[in-house]
Design brief:
globular; mainly alpha; 2% strand
Amino acid sequence: MLLRRYDTTLQADGSRLYMPLDGIHRDAFAAFMYRISGDTGYQAPAVSPFRYITPSTMYYKEMCWLSSKGIATGWPDGTYRPLDNVNRDAMAAFMYRYNGSPAYQAPGSSPFSDVVTSQLFYKEMAWMQSQGLSTGWPDGTYRPVTAIARDAMAAFLYRMENPTK
């Protein structure tokens, strides 16, 4: 199950909201990726690979798993910044690494009007497009430094697990 009770917002009447247009925090992103992996045997280390993250931090196991697989390395200062939103460019890099960093030659011309070939994570964003995981926006943009919304993340994960290409 990708969605858990604490991935939604509890309302006063007891109902829950999914909040599809809210950004995905880095800790929740780790949880989504861990759940979709099916790696139920993973044991988190007693000592965190990240500063300020402890075994009692929500999604500790999932963030450690992401690190152990080389999907996310955190920031140069040793932090993970779990409550920061994941931008669309970084999400593409995480998805690319999750899929084993497949051999892929990015095109010499960007598939998106707002992404240049010299941009950080260009290869990964182009890979997302080449795999049919992301088509970008109707205006031809990818919007790489925009936080990934929950509804879009659900679509990307669905497409990754149910490829059409």
